[in-house]
Recover the amino acids of this structure.
């Protein structure tokens, strides 16, 4: 699916236009989502809302980035949309709010290097020895994203979001293969971190700000945090259709998340 | 169930599908089953089974005074299993046993399907409960008690006691009188229909006061909303 | 300056599985015991409660129950020519921390090692001749036999309430159990767990191929069980959040669900959490331990004098504690002399995925930690190694423990690593894939060892432990042979695609394999090749006992916990019945 097709596809769902009235045939995942990253799908207008900054979809659902700067958010939103695309098979990283997940993780203890041994001396090490850079995850992203932006501007006179979907994929593959030196960060290390966090934001519990509406769990059939299968495990081969349940779910089926994560309606309701 | 189907079926269909949603068969129950269930619930059967509604209320809301449980919106599989267990004696109950035995397997299934599809407003707890009792109940419901080696009810009965279909019934909004009776039956063996033996084990670790506390707490929680 | 505390009869380093067992046995014998645990106190309620405990990101991905690398880690290199570097985040293995230790977040797989494991060198020589063992392998006997261990395995399994099917009771073979096991005195305390779908498919295929499938012995219980301590366990609910998590149901045997409710009420027992032991203190002769020095969570230093010192830390930390305290001779790979840190071994694992079409719902989330079905036909020396060119073996089983999607979203080989095709494959295969584990032994070799790192320090300023390890060729050959066998079984299971590769070198610390790190304070009857005698008493300091998987001279095919628990009971028995009556060496060198 080309990028243009994808935009048309999303537009057809009433997403790109921010429409709130939905046709009855629209899949549930599209109905439920306040698709917070519509910014990437909407051409940026001079003087308009800068991408990546508080995009207002509906009352009470303001989404703000607390870590990413606008140009960083632009890259992250576009990159994760290529890593796990929105396509005929259903929602992708965009609908799941993966960019929001990355933002909140990098702004917090994870970004600051919790549980990371951070004493030198520093050596590049061998692949068998694992991560050996002095950067915390937040520093790794900040430095890596700056280097990527510079690389594209200086060497291709463009930015990641101006590339076609195919070109974006090609560039991500270069990063993945370690073909770029991002100011001392091997691009394969950067890519591996981006991919791991994309997986976390897609498949993790919605309480962390990704997997909104449990879209990925619906896609694959994972029932979520509430889980007791003693009575079912020996009913071999049954199709288990229970709607997934988040660990932040209330008896009324609402998912309440920490009020510091502003992407959610629950934040307001809980106060 | 693939999510796209949800957009196509109407509200009623959704409710039915959800009631069924635990296990397989996947398809919403035939409308005939629900209709038969409704008939049994309201009129009883020719074979002599009393109408369910006479005790469990017109909407399956139950009745606190008689210890008759809410049935509305409980998982279909759970309800069907209880009716079967009243007939096989693993739930030994002098009222429900004879009634369930007067139903055929299909009628039991239909009745379960019907009640799973209902929603009923929350009842008002009849009697007052001391704040300490409710605090104790909340603790047991949501956190458990390590001294008694009792885990939280929510572990299996879902968020806020909202149930975990298809196996685990909701407790939120259930009448306290019924919940106390049920725990007593688990303790004394009159109810022995949990193959995992987990529920009798937990019930036996609860004191009489604990059972009253947890029952009073859940009676004051709103029953789960009909889903979608 | 350390504040000196009143002397106690015994001090425990670590209150995990070993510490809890020794604490219980020694207080029962009337000793006053102080347990020092570096981590937090934690209990089923309120620490392991649902739904919060079912948090894949926090516990499984970010490893909340594990030792904090920022404070204390291990440095690693594949061989002595390389510069060892710190493992800055855990990957290949996950040392735990906190009250109850790793026995809180374990899966509950509870296997006995075989007699041929305990007598690996002598058995191999007896069966294949004295030249069969290559000189580059430093495998050796344990100084115990399966018969010596039976009583203690039995005791430990009845403590846990293990669910399983015996295969050999007092020499009588029992259908449905493991036909290769050594005689046990009685059956398991509780019947086997329910068999999940993938495991049933494995059972059928393996049986048709002539193998002997049996249910995995599990410390996630199949029914409620009251253990001999009077502590009640409950039934496992197959939630799919077991390893790396605590259990909310009181259904996984752990110190919290088997021993601590009794031990913590004993007035002879004092638990001090947040207590990081810095060293074991010796008297002037260096032959007698006088106690330990530790630092509490607020940074205050204490000296705890004790008549008896029990080291029951994770394998790495048992070794490191001796090295930091100057007890025993450190192993020197150049000369082959010395024993502390010698014979570090691991586990040689690989995976085979069996991809079905979308009509087969495997439901991988309906699992427990130690459920499933396996075969022991290729364990240890249960098959003829004569022509194979390697020693050791593996169990092969369909023992998947979860379907948590961040960690587990199998796709067939050739699938792109990301993008639409990847997503499509994940959707297609998530619920329709069974996974076989090949869980293999690890031989000891002189180049694989543990010592103190010369460069990197922990948060207390003490040298980190340095691991030098790579897979011996012997184990890579074993993995190749047995991964092939697993591929055959996978094909017989009817998978549309069956894929898996043997373990390949070099050993890499970034990908999870197992936390079965063994050796370094090896047990044995010969002090020139062991740190402790067969009762786990230090050869050098007789009032010091070191207990854990660090005692294993090499690692066997099965998971280690049952053997660690049995060794703990055996050591406790020796202390109570012999040492306390006449303190001193239980065995002459």
């Amino acid at each position: 699916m080309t990028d243009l097709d994808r935009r048309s596809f999303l537009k057809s769902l009433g997403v790109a236009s921010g429409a709130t009235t939905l046709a009855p045939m629209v899949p549930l995942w599209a109905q439920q989502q306040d698709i917070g990253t519509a910014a990437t799908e909407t051409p940026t207008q001079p003087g308009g809302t800068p991408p990546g900054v508080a995009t207002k979809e509906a009352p009470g659902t303001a989404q703000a980035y607390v870590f990413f700067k606008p140009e960083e958010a632009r890259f992250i939103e576009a990159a994760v949309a290529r890593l796990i695309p929105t396509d005929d098979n259903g929602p992708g990283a965009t609908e799941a709010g993966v960019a929001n997940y990355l933002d909140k993780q990098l702004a917090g203890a994870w970004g600051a290097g919790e549980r990371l041994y951070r004493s030198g001396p520093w050596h590049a090490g061998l692949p068998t020895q694992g991560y050996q850079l002095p950067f915390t995850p937040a520093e790794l992203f900040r430095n890596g994203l700056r280097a990527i932006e510079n690389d594209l501007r200086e060497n291709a006179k463009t930015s990641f979001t101006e590339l076609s979907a195919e070109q974006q994929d090609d560039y991500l593959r270069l990063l993945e293969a370690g073909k770029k030196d991002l100011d001392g960060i091997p691009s394969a290390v950067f890519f591996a971190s981006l991919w791991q966090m994309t997986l976390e934001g897609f498949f993790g519990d919605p309480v962390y700000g990704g997997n909104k509406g449990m879209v990925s769990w619906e896609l694959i059939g994972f029932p979520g945090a509430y889980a007791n299968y003693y009575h079912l495990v020996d009913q071999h081969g049954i199709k288990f259709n229970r709607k997934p349940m988040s660990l932040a779910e209330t008896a009324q089926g609402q998912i309440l998340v920490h009020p510091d994560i502003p992407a959610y309606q629950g934040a307001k309701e809980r106060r | 169930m693939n999510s796209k189907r949800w957009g196509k079926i109407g509200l009623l269909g959704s409710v039915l599908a959800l009631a069924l949603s635990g296990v397989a068969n996947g398809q919403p129950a035939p409308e005939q089953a629900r209709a038969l269930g409704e008939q049994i619930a309201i009129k009883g059967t020719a074979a002599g089974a009393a109408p369910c509604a006479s005790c469990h209320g017109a909407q399956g809301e139950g009745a606190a005074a008689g210890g008759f449980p809410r049935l509305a919106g409980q998982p279909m599989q759970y309800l069907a299993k209880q009716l079967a267990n009243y007939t096989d004696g693993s739930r030994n109950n002098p009222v429900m046993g004879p009634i369930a035995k007067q139903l055929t397997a299909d009628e039991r299934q239909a009745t379960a399907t019907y009640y799973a599809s209902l929603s009923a407003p929350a009842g008002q707890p009849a009697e007052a409960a001391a704040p300490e009792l409710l605090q104790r109940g909340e603790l047991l419901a949501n956190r458990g008690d390590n001294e008694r080696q009792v885990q939280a009810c929510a572990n299996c009965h879902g968020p806020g006691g909202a149930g975990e279909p298809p196996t685990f019934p909701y407790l939120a909004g259930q009448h306290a009188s019924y919940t106390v009776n049920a725990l007593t039956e688990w303790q004394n063996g009159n109810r022995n229909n949990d193959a995992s033996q987990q529920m009798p084990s937990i019930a036996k670790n609860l004191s009489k006061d604990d059972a009253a506390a947890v029952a009073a707490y859940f009676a004051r929680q709103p029953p789960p909303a009909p889903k979608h | 300056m350390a504040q000196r505390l009143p002397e106690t009869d015994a001090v425990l380093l670590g209150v995990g599985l070993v510490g809890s067992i020794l604490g219980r046995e020694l207080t029962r014998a009337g000793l006053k015991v102080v347990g020092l645990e570096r981590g937090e106190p934690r209990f089923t309620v309120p620490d392991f409660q649902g739904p919060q405990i079912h948090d894949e990101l926090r516990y499984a991905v970010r490893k909340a129950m594990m030792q904090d690398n920022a404070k204390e880690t291990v440095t690693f290199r594949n061989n002595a020519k390389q510069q060892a570097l710190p493992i800055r985040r855990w990957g290949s293995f996950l040392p735990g921390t906190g009250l109850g230790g790793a026995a809180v977040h374990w899966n509950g797989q509870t296997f006995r090692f075989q007699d041929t494991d305990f007598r690996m060198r002598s058995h191999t020589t007896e069966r294949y001749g004295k030249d069969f063992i290559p000189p580059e392998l430093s495998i050796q006997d344990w100084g115990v036999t399966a018969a010596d261990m039976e009583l203690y395995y039995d005791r430990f399994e009845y403590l846990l309430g293990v669910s399983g099917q015996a295969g050999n009771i007092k020499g009588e073979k029992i259908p449905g159990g493991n036909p290769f096991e050594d005689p046990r005195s009685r059956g398991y305390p509780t019947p086997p767990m329910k068999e999940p779908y993938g495991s049933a498919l494995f059972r059928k295929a393996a049986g048709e191929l002539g193998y002997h499938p049996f249910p995995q012995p599990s410390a996630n219980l199949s029914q409620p069980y009251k253990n001999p301590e009077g502590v009640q366990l409950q039934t496992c609910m197959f939630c799919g959040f077991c390893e790396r998590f605590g259990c909310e149901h009181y259904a996984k045997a752990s110190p919290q669900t088997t021993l601590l409710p009794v031990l913590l009420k004993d007035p002879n027992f004092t638990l001090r959490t947040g207590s990081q032991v810095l060293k074991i203190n010796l008297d002037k002769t260096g032959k007698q331990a006088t106690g330990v020095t530790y630092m509490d969570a607020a940074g205050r230093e204490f000296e705890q004098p004790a008549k008896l010192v029990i080291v029951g830390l994770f394998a790495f930390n048992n070794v490191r504690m001796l090295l930091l305290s100057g007890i025993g001779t450190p192993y020197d790979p150049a000369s082959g002399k010395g024993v502390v840190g010698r014979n570090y071994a691991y586990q040689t694992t690989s995976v085979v995925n069996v991809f079905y079409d979308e009509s087969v719902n495997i439901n991988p989330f309906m699992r427990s930690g130690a459920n499933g079905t396996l075969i022991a036909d290729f364990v240890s020396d249960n098959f003829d190694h004569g022509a194979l060119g390697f020693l050791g073996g593996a169990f092969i089983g369909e023992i998947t423990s979860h379907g948590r999607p961040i960690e587990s979203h199998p796709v067939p080989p050739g699938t792109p690593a990301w993008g639409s095709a990847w997503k499509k494959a994940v959707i297609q295969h998530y619920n329709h894939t069974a996974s076989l584990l090949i869980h293999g032994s690890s031989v000891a070799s002189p180049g694989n060892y543990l010592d103190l790192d010369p460069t990197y320090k922990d948060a207390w300023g003490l040298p980190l432990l340095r691991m030098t390890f790579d897979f011996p060729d012997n184990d890579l050959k074993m993995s190749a042979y047995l991964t092939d066998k697993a591929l055959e079984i996978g094909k017989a299971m009817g998978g549309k695609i069956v894929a898996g590769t043997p373990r390949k070198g070099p050993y890499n610390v970034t990908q999870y394999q197992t936390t079965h790190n063994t050796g370094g304070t090896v047990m044995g009857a010969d002090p020139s090749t062991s740190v402790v005698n067969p009762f786990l008493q230090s050869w050098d300091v007789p009032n010091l006992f070191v207990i854990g998987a660090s005692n294993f001279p090499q690692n066997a095919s099965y998971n280690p916990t049952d053997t660690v628990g049995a060794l703990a009971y055996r050591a406790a028995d020796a202390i109570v019945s012999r040492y306390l009556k006449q303190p001193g060496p239980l065995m002459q060198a």
Notes: Chain A is about 40% helix and 0% strand. Chain A touches chain B through 27 residues (CB under 8 Å).
